[in-house]
Amino acid sequence: MNFDAPSVIRTKRDGGALSDAAIDWVIAAYTDGRVADEQMSALLMAIFLRGMTGAEITRWTTAMIASGERFDFGDLGRPLVDKHSTGGVGDKITIPLVPVVLACGAAVPQAAGRGLGHTGGTLDKLEAIPGFTAELSKNRIRQQLSDIGAAIFAAGDLAPADRKIYALRDITATTESLPLIASSVMSKKLAEGARSLVLDVKVGKGAFLKTEAESRELAATMVALGNDSGVPTRALLTDMNRPLGRAVGNAVEVVESLEVLAGGGPDDVVELTLALAAEMLDAAGLDGVDPAQTLRDGTAMDRFRALVAAQGGDLSAPLPIGAHSESVPAPTGGVMGDIDAMAVAMAAWRLGAGRAAPGHPVQFGAGVQIHRRPGESVAAGDALFTLYTDTPERLAPAIAELDGGWTVGPREPVIGPLIIDRIG
Ligand code: URA
């Protein structure tokens, strides 16, 4: 059947469902350049506004997988398990999590992403380590999985349609769409060769989908996509109203991850790392191992060092820190109230931790350090936040983003549980 982009866009614009053949055509044609960015942008906005049926999401995901390679590392004889987050603020969890599950006996082939919208990307954070590369060939991934059990890599030849669409969504205000998030995450994850999968689906102010109902639906959609494709999948629904930990940015998040791997670090980062590790180990059939022990005895840190070294990184070199900084002082004493994850994300983005246009470099040293977390005591004049950047003119707009995103008051804020539910 012959298709053309305007007819496909018109069908979705007018609230219709796209046929399997139309989806296969538009994804293949966009991947090889027959459909232009302007046309795909219009289609993405129509999908954003009109949504997709379950059948359309399944086909869109399958077509994105078919746009590239699908890895199979089953012959390595190791339990291959991975996790993916739907995007958060201060969400550095992959960095301590991968070495923890590795130290417990699982193997992790992880196709990771760069920053999207206001959220940070694991690759942007890890590339802050001098020398670290995420551009790995399939052979190198296979070799690394065989030698040390994990690789964290740019999706490259996996789901190349998602790579193009992901970049376009970032600049066309079409990131916050359930069908587009579900298909983006699952196309990469089903193509990367993991045999089971754990998803961290964020809920709240710093998540792409703000309400619990939407996040539940996203989780259920992705769990079904995984299970129906033969990859046992489950999800944790986790709170993203406030940033995770005390660091939001690139190198600052690596520093915090190293603290966790050394047996310290903020409670919430440790809690989520261990909860996701327990799910991954269970999914991989590795019960009876205690992930917390690997943080206490240094084995997770050893695995992280081996992983970074295998990917060219030098952890003995200093991590970059922005040359310019400014702190936000407490106007009065009291207790730190809640901190709005979106305000901190936007501040970090203004400092240069994220991108304003596709392909632009990020500042590895840009970020926000949170000195007082919700519920901690504050004296008047204490530094609450310190902002770092290499470009000093970014400091004032970043501080303005924080305005209204935090309070200091007489009472402790009421904070709900970090792990809200488990689905699948
Ligand atoms: N992570 C992805 O890979 N894609 C999204 O759309 C959101 C988070």
From TrEMBL:
EC number(s) per entry: 2.4.2.4
Assigned keywords, A-Z: Glycosyltransferase, Transferase
UniProt lineage: Bacteria, Bacillati, Actinomycetota, Actinomycetes, Mycobacteriales
InterPro entries: Glycosyl_Trfase_fam3, Glycosyl_Trfase_fam3_N_dom, Glycosyl_Trfase_fam3_N_dom_sf, Nuc_phospho_transferase, PYNP-like_C_sf, PYNP_C, Pyrmidine_PPas_bac/euk, Pyrmidine_PPase_CS
A Gene Ontology BP annotation from the UniProt entry: pyrimidine nucleobase metabolic process
One Pfam family it belongs to: Glycos_trans_3N
Protein name in the entry: Thymidine phosphorylase
Gene3D superfamilies the UniProt entry points to: Nucleoside phosphorylase/phosphoribosyltransferase catalytic domain, Pyrimidine nucleoside phosphorylase-like, C-terminal domain, Transferase, Pyrimidine Nucleoside Phosphorylase, Chain C
Example of a GO cellular component annotation carried by this entry: cytosol
Keyword Transferase recorded: yes
Family: Belongs to the thymidine/pyrimidine-nucleoside phosphorylase family.
Residues of the Pyrimidine nucleoside phosphorylase C-terminal domain: 335-409
Assembly and oligomerization: Homodimer.
Source organism of the structure: Mycolicibacterium frederiksbergense
GO MF entries: 1,4-alpha-oligoglucan phosphorylase activity; thymidine phosphorylase activity
